[in-house]
Amino acid sequence: MIRNIVFDMGKVLIHFDPERYVRRLGMTPQDEKLLLNQVFRSVEWVQMDRGVIDEEEAVRLFCMRLPSRLHTCVRKLVFEWDEPVMPVEGMYELVEELKNAGYGIYLLSNASVRHPQYWPKIPVSRFFDGLVVSSEAGFMKPRVEIYRLLCERYGLKAEECFFIDDLPANVEAAVYAGMSGMVFHDGDVEKVRARLREEGLL
Q1: What is the pLDDT of residue 150?
Q2: pLDDT at residue 193 in the model
Q3: Which residue would you say has higher pLDDT here, 202 or 156?
Q4: Mean pLDDT of all residues in the chain?
Q5: pLDDT computed for residue 102 by the predictor
Q6: Do 42 and 121 share a domain, yes or no?
Q7: What distance in Å separates the CA atoms of residue 148 and residue 154, rounded to the nearest whole number?
Q8: Mapping DSSP to helix (H, G, I), strand (E, B) and coil, where does residue 126 land?
């Protein structure tokens, strides 16, 4: 029996759209591509999520390989991508419904050490009973250890958890850890409702 719903954050609870973040800076197409590749698609971005480096160190490394005209933009992308937070439409209502129905609500996210600064700004965060974030854990999804850490920390049974993530590899790892789950990749919250009904949750 499912008793707990575990959510990813980016592209599940909130929109995470690097192309949009870069476009709103008003750069040339060439500089937009450079920033996308050198910031969001970089090794350092992954290292931030794993907790190996923080944002200040990442900015320093980015700026070492980018022209000076882009340094201010780099800092804005790293420290202000979440301004404003953009919730996924309909997810607040779904989580509220699940919470009111008595299910445990948990977050399992690959995110940097800045996570505590923007997590409270996400309206749906008020419903969550606990969380595990990769930068604090020291390892990332899809490593099975992070799913086990969530269960150990909050006394959950894996077979009683349903996991929702936008990446198939992360859901597959959750299944390997003993959970059930689904891939949420198109922003259609009604598909999540339908799947939860199939599981007997709603």
Answers
A1: 98
A2: 95
A3: 156
A4: 97
A5: 97
A6: no
A7: 10
A8: helix
Query: DSSP letters along 5-71, please?
Result: EEE-SBTTTB---HHHHHHTTT--HHHHHHHIIIIITSHHHHHHHHTSS-HHHHHHHHHHHS-GGGH
Spell out the residues 6+ positions from residue 73 whose beta carbon is closer than 8 angstroms to its own.
25, 27, 31, 35
Question: Exposure pattern of 137-153 as b/e (b: 16+ CB <10 Å)?
Answer: beebbbbeebbebbbee
Q: What is the Cα Rg of the chain in Å?
A: 18
Q: How far is CA 6 from CA 26, 76, 167, in A?
A: 37, 30, 14
Q: Do 70 and 100 reside in the same domain of the chain?
A: no
Angle of helix 55-65 relative to helix 43-50, nearest 10 degrees, comes to 170
Residues 90, 152 share a domain:
yes
Residues 109, 96 within the same domain: yes
Q: Measured between alpha carbons, how far is 186 from 137 in angstroms, rounded to an integer?
A: 28
**Mean pLDDT value across residues 160-181:** 98
Domain of 190 in residue numbering reads as: 4-15+86-198
| CATH number of the domain bearing residue 192 | 3.40.50.1000
* Residue 151 confidence (pLDDT): 98
**For the residues 4-26, what does the mean pLDDT come to?**
97
User: How far is it, in rounded angstroms, from Cα 179 to Cα 105?
Assistant: 14
Give the model's confidence band at 135: pLDDT under 50 very low, under 70 low, under 90 confident, else very high: very high
Contact between 48 and 54 under an 8 Å Cβ cutoff? The reply is yes
| pLDDT on residue 202 | 79
Number of domains in the chain: 2
The pTM of the full predicted model, rounded to 2 decimals, is: 0.96
**Are 12 and 91 contacting, i.e. CB atoms less than 8 angstroms apart?**
yes
